[in-house]
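## tool: complex_structure
## caller: assistant
## args:
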Amino acid sequence: MILENFLGALSHLADPMTLFIMVIATVVGIVIGALPGLGTVTALAMVLPFTFALSAPQAIGVLLAIYVSSIFGGSIPAVLINVPGTPQSAATTFDGYPMAKQGRADEALGWVTVASTIGGIFSGLVLIFAAPELAAFAIRFGSIETLALIVFSLTTIAWVSAGSTLKGLLAGVVGLALSTVGVDNMSGVERFTFGNLQLSAGFHAVPILIGLFALSEVLLSSGQMVSMPRPVTRAGFRIAPFSSWWRLRRTLLRSSLIGTFLGILPGIGATAASLLAYSQARAASPNRDKFGTGEAEGLVSSEVANNAVTGGALVPTLALGIPGDAANAVMMGALIIHGITPGVQLFANNPDLVAFIFVALLASNVMMFLTSALASRVFTRILNIPHALILGVVVILSLAGSYVVRASIMDVWVAVIAGMVGYGLRLVNVPLAPIVIGFILGPSFETSLRQGLILTQMNPLRFFEHPIAATIFAITFLVMTWPLIRKLWGRGKRQPTL
Amino acid sequence: MNGLLNSNTVFGALSSLVGGIFLFLSFRQAEVAFVLPGDIPPFLVPKVFLVLWIALSLAILVSGLRLPPSPLGEQNHARIVMIAVLLVVVTWLMRSLGFMIVAPVAAFATCAILGYRRHLLNAAVAVLASGALYLLLTRVAELSLPKIPVFW
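## result:
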């Protein structure tokens, strides 16, 4: 990536309109993130239709701002009412809420904001260096390697999803199957359209996302409406002195590395990263006994890690076109809608845009910091809005968002049906993220598989003659059989004692 | 028989059935699809996905048979059904009545069903949010939403 691209990206970012809409997106992201139940994917799905009228860089800026700020926004209720706004902020409640209960809510929000910014910027810098390297390596990838990578990604995501592995795998397969509806691009044959002209174009990602995440949340919440506790105190914003931060430098670095690395791996996500960073910080800290009682180190470790996931997760999304989680699948879907296909070709053909993504990610973190510092009192008041009113607005946003995609009522029906199906799946603990990832990766999976079969004269065993693909398939097999291997290994080791 | 019912058996059975229906349809549709010699049949990949779908669903069903019967969690079913019906009715009427009539009603009714009793505030929020959203999408973003028929 050359300096010229970065200067071009900075000039795009300096456009007042781009800056303005990114600030608005930051506020919206923090607000949606702060509302328990909605989360990052819902925020991205609901905002996505609004980006259709924007230029590609502006749309990317908006989505990155939403992505970064919604993860941070989840920390506000975690600190103030002991309810994480997003699952990624679960570990923030451990020390954030006790700190707020001690009358130090302003200090807690200061720690959380600065820690999130540090984690986000660290992972953004890793993205700048790692993504081009990975993309350069991925130039060697043909259709069979791409297929292997998608199989690896989907399997791992399903494997580490909440709930049972079988359900995670099934969810991924359902997503893949949904992507085959419509006219087959290679042969022109209609598949599962039942003669419906509107189905010929296939399902669009936006109504499916809105249904699965936003409308299913409305249905789920309507079944279990509980009143939110009121914030413990009227919060402000106070940053601890530099000496306090310097004392935590090792925790900051460790948690940043954990968040970024786990972000790069498919399926692990920010929730696991923040919990792991918290447990590692606790194990390494001389103040480990104070963890859980309002210890700043615990708060910082989880917050740095969950925001460090953002840049890490964008590495495979941008470099390989393989999203590691549902939020990145939405981001990838948004890029495709705007005519940009993530992957090797993005780096070769659109270096300006790649540089803009890097710069916009860093800028989103700075905006998140400034917005939070200036308006933390306002965000606190959002927690007092009745949940029913918010869900009413979510319903109309979902209806409008689904319709405007293709000005088709069919898409609204798709969203409503996806919402009901999503609600049912959540009841039986089927993870929704693999459906979205399977759906987004489906066309690429099918194209790669069919090209691979043509190349090998319909003999899939010859896929293993490609060393990179064979290695990826072997790792996938290892990931899938790991629990069994561990079980057998443990049994073997126990045998002498029997 | 009731002893075999839990979320896994019900879900596994339903999912297998759906997968089975679509696999059957894929064979039916594949019969009439024209394929060039040497080309990959267009229904090959969907069939692979659907076979995996059915296999995984059956595995979930079998795993459920080994679990004790369990309820699906405590939910307010009346509210859920009302919200689901509301979504269907609103979608059905959106094209004919227009977004600006249907959306405020949808927002208001959602809040009311969820137990919010400050109806004046609820109505004000519903109208203002719908109006703001309509203007934002149609005027600022220049996207299309169903119009009220009178204004066509």
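## assistant note: The CA atoms of residues 347 and 354 of chain A lie 7 Å apart. Chain A has a mean pLDDT of 87. Handing back to user.
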